[in-house]
Amino acid sequence: MTQAGVSHRVGLLESVLDCALLDRGRRPARPTSAGHRLYDHATLLLQHADQMVVGVRNVSRSKRNTVRLGSVESFAATIGPVIISALAQRSNQLRLVSGNTSGLQSQLEARELDFTVTTGRHTAPGLRKEKLFSEPFLVVLPRSFESGTLSTFTALSRRLQFIRYNAHAVIAQEIEDYLQLHSEHIERTYEFDATDLLLSLVSAGHGFALTTPLCLWQSRQYLPSVRILPLSSFSRDGQPYEEMRRSYYLNFHDNELGSLPSVLQELIRIGYEKLVDTEISKGIGFPKSSIYFPHVKS
Q1: Which InterPro entries does the protein's record reference (predicted)?
Q2: Around Cβ 216, how many Cβ atoms within 10 Å?
Q3: How much of the chain exceeds pLDDT 90, in percent?
Q4: Is there a single domain that holds both residue 111 and residue 200?
Q5: Are residues 114 and 261 in the same domain?
Q6: Are residues 148 and 223 in the same domain?
Q7: Which of 66, 44, 159, 82 has the alpha carbon at shortest distance from 115?
Q8: Does position 94 have pLDDT exceeding 60, yes or no?
Q9: Higher pLDDT, 278 or 46
Q10: Residue with more model confidence, 273 or 114
Q11: Phi and psi of 189, rounded to 5°?
Q12: Domain range for residue 203?
């Protein structure tokens, strides 16, 4: 716009609002307090207008055949196939990609994905975060190893190396926080991004690890060679270690995509319970009651 055009528009606004928006006695002109207030209100209105356009477009997109879902690897490898089959029956196709939590959330914020299933607590403006389920952490030992009177993880680490997830992974941060809470200071030796590598070393007798049922089922080829114990099998000062859980969340843009978020939540719930009923509870040996699903009656 030309300077004259801008001056004309500002003049019209001042006439409608019956107040001065610019202090013209200064060079260059500066906004008055009323001008600043109008600017703040207008900025919010324009942001809402942009969100309205995107939201309306995405509601129409929610009826499309392809749903783009990104998830952490443990979810994609175990529950992903169940979700794909269920959506196919509803005439929806699922484009499933796996990755780490931070990368998936960046893709969601950039609208390269419609949904993400992650384990971190990261949130961003305009995003909705719904808790799906949580699962307990477990201790995984070589099948032939007898822990005997070893009570703490530090004592265990003197007999077996502690095999960690890579420090950049959310699951590694959760485990590290838990160890520090219980005053466990274990030397860093092995660190891996993938559960397969971690469990391959455990099954070969080279160490022990902390992981979860979904991760174990993802790498179930190693189950015959490992022994699984609850955290409460270990203790400090006579007190059993308390339970630690890993939570999964469904993330999506709020007020968009129509009924798809609730449909997907229900499919995930069914898929998880089916997995627990038919496979995990047999192969890993923990009761279904240890699985937490919010808003679902037992």
Answers
A1: HTH-type_LysR_regulators, LysR_HTH_N, LysR_subst-bd, WH-like_DNA-bd_sf, WH_DNA-bd_sf
A2: 25
A3: 32
A4: no
A5: yes
A6: yes
A7: 66
A8: yes
A9: 46
A10: 114
A11: -130, -70
A12: 138-243
